[in-house]
Amino acid sequence: MTDSGGTPDRQPAGSPAAGPAAGVEPVHVFPVRVYYEDTDAGGIVYYANYLKFAERARTELLRQTGRQQFDLLRERGIGFTVRSCRAEYLAPARLDDILEIRSTVNEVLGASMRLSQRIYRGERLLCDLRFRIAVMNREGRPTRIPKDIRDTLAPRIVPPDEPEADEAETGEAGCGSTPRRPAAPRDCHSYGVDPSAEPV
């Protein structure tokens, strides 16, 4: 199946192997400060709030391309939804920390795209997030990414530093998760826990 431009349905926009186009900054950086409301009883950022930070960063990445989610829904009847998410929590963020969400488009497919979003404090990686974002119409059905949006995203594409699990296209959308790898020892050490210790 091809679009009006003759592009195969699962053909990535642009050429990921070539990397981002000259003059285009491939990594979108969004700063955020940790407030009291973001933390849990232990004084660290509650794990689900990293997803909120990432959502804000994706919205600003889209805004940087000259588009806003509300306008896309109102004028074109399309919106973005999370199809899948994989998260690795490597170290905690704390009250009043200033974080950076660094977002990269890894692949643009027919009706979805893959993004990497990494959350840093300085140069310390705290959380590594991988998303698959689907485009839906007003009826909640997958729809193709408009050509102008594909063309805008194409120069920003940077292939992921590791392969993603292959997911078959389906007619349904929602929120799920891809299979996770076992946590590496460094994940545990980041929190001061010995991964070889017996549970108590």
Structure overview:
Helices cover 18% and strands 26% of the residues. It has 200 residues and is α+β, with helices and mostly antiparallel strands. The protein has a domain of 133 residues: Thiol Ester Dehydrase, Chain A (Roll), CATH 3.10.129.10. It has a five-stranded antiparallel sheet, with helices on one face.
From the N-terminal CA to the C-terminal CA, the straight-line distance is: 56 Å
Task: Tell the overall outline.
Answer: globular
Q: What fold name goes in the CATH topology slot of the domain at 27-159?
A: Thiol Ester Dehydrase, Chain A
Per CATH, the class of the domain at 27-159 reads Alpha Beta
Strand/helix succession: EHHEEEEHH
Q: Could you give the order of strands across the largest sheet?
A: 1-3-4-5-2
Instruction: Supply the CATH superfamily name of the domain at 27-159.
Output: Hotdog Thioesterase
What low-confidence regions span 5 or more consecutive residues with pLDDT below 50? 1-18, 166-200
Mean pLDDT: 76
Entry keywords:
globular, 5 strands, disordered C terminus, disordered N terminus, 200 residues, alpha+beta, Thiol Ester Dehydrase, Chain A, five-stranded antiparallel β-sheet
